[in-house]
Amino acid sequence: MRVAGAGQVRGAAITRGSVARVGVATAISALCGYAVLYLAARDLDPAGFSVFGVFWGAFGLVGGAAYGLLQEATREVRSTGHVEVTEGPQTHPMRVGAGLGVVAATVMAVTAPLWAPHVFSESRALSVILLSAGLAGFCVHATLLGLHAGLGNWGQYGGLMVTDAVIRVVVAAATFLLGWGLLGFLWATVGGAVGWVLLLLVSPAARMAARVRTPRGTGTFLAGAAHSIAAAGASAILVMGFPVLLKATSGELGAAGGVVILAVTLTRAPLLVPLTAMQGNLIAHFVDHRGHRLKALIAPALVVLMLGAVGVLAAWLVGPWLIRVAFGAAYTPAGSLLAWLTAGAVAIALLTLTGAATVAAAQHRAYSIGWVGATAASAALLSLPLDLEQRTVIALLCGPVVGIAVHLAALARAGR
């Protein structure tokens, strides 16, 4: 292993400037996401929006699973002090990400007859094709994000996020203006998955990051990534893919389902979009504080709780009015529903924090068990004999508690 030259030291410290850069990129990405949802809701009726919402959630689910590659690449690069690996076992993360993307897309397409009829009620063939191709691209996207996070290239990290988001909103705006309807919004959902190609074409720093190798064998990298992908997939069900879980446990959603999906998406985005985007920062932070990770959890958890309390109050008081003004009278959720869904988003945000600390501690098994347990609990709660709104609130509030307990127990054992 050879030490890199000046300016190439891996793992630059987390600074206010780096957090600010990612924060700005996150804000832009969130606004673009809101813009896509706004355009879709204005262009489609609630029943049509529920179809779009399920596809949006499905891509969020598979893309969220691909974020396991981001987590493992970040941890591997951040835990090592050198850029250039010239001897011994080594892994080229970008090649691994590309290979996994192709394999995952192929498996998804081949198995589509088994699951697609239960998920997509319209444009089934196109949905499967777009979902498979989007997943392949997003695996490379997530790996490149992880390499940037490990290297401390926060400007490039944010640039890749923004490129993805801007491509989506451009396609959605064209769909709205040209009347492409539901199909156009399906294309908009996955359009950003090619953003990494554009960044590699224009950025020398991105090309340098793409060439980085990590100092362990590919099998070791894949073993860690497998746990991270399993956990990220489970987390994605709760964070982005919840409409898919709702559809799978409720059957036909209709107009009422469209209202609930929009409410869930809008109430969780202010907290969970930034946290998801800042996974690289969080994992790097917990790696840097490897001696006292439980203590390092306190400050970000307090920030989440304070922001969440403000969000719950705002959702209750002004949420229904904002949604009615922005999306039309067909979307009229109650203030109490919005407040409870926001509280559920806080629970998932705390689970995201404990998960980042757990994966930074290389507690891959506990990390995946925590997220899978939370998802299984939420799915079971969605089967309760209650109406759609009540089941949704209970599942989002109580399911994450299972995962938080698993993560905290693992971190306590690792500390001892």
UniProtKB/TrEMBL annotation:
Topological relation to the membrane, as annotated: Multi-pass membrane protein
Entry keyword Cell membrane: yes
Membrane-crossing residue ranges in chain numbering: 20-41, 47-70, 96-116, 128-147, 159-179, 185-206, 218-242, 254-275, 296-318, 338-362, 369-386, 392-412
Keyword terms of this UniProt record: Cell membrane, Membrane, Transmembrane, Transmembrane helix
PANTHER family assigned to the protein according to its UniProt record, in alphabetical order: O-ANTIGEN TRANSPORTER-RELATED, PST FAMILY PREDICTED COLANIC ACID TRANSPORTER
Record's protein name: Integral membrane protein
Protein's UniProt keywords contain Glycosyltransferase: no
Matching InterPro entries: Poly_Biosynth_Transport
Localization in the cell: Cell membrane
Major site of localization recorded for this protein: membrane
